[in-house]
Write the structure tokens for this entry.
Amino acid sequence: MTIGYIFLAIAAVAVVLLGSSVRVITQFERGVVFRFGQLRSEIRGPGLALIVPFVDRLQKVNMQIITQPVPAQDGITRDNVTVRVDAVLYYRVVDPGRVAVDVQDYGSAILQVAQASLRSIIGKSELDDLLSNREKLNQGLELMIDNPAVGWGVHIDRVEIKDVALPESMKRSMSRQAEAERERRSRVIIAEGELQASQKLAEAAEVMAEHPAALQLRLLQTVVEVAAEKNSTLVLPFPVELLRFLERATPPDTSSRALSTTESSASASNGKDPDMLDRIWTRT
């Protein structure tokens, strides 16, 4: 009976030791083993990992990409503008052994480096670069953070500047500047349009001077366009060119006869001679 209890005790101790020597490592983790406080060179992969009870200590390191928001940092740009900039940082562990040994809290260390690098980037950049040239700034910021992180076994995948907060006075100044720029562009476009229109009008005037009938066709087209609006009043200009056209189209003898008749009528009316008036009207 005593022997049975002994075997049961030994079996229980074996089960306890076996349970304490088996560890489960998930797919996104790696295991770092310390034997009597000394780092073992072998990195345990996912699955079951056996360690020596009371001798080895297994530390799991997450190998997933970590998203770390960088708190907003106040700074003054190179062109003396006060801004407030925040960013987001993506990084992952590439060397579990160095992460477990070289740095106590690599997440906090990466965050502090990111904040200092962000303030440095703000001081070296101008406001226009922060607003419109962020790709270049992101690359520079990533390089600044990655330099110390490589020594800790961490790789920086990506750094993005999220938002740039400006003072209200600067926002108003920028809005006035943008409005003035749009006004300048509109005036330039209007001036260019007037120049092109004047050139086309000059060409049209030359064509109408060579072909007077073109002016009549244009006049008729204008009448058609105005008449289509169903207006009650129609103002029709009578160009001088039309008079000249009619003058050239009238035969010379008809015009001189009409002129003589008019002069005779005027003389008769001034002399008040009824017989002369009768002769004039008979001749006409």
User: Anything to note?
Assistant: Residues 104 and 197 are 75 Å apart (CA to CA). The chain has ten helices and eight strands.
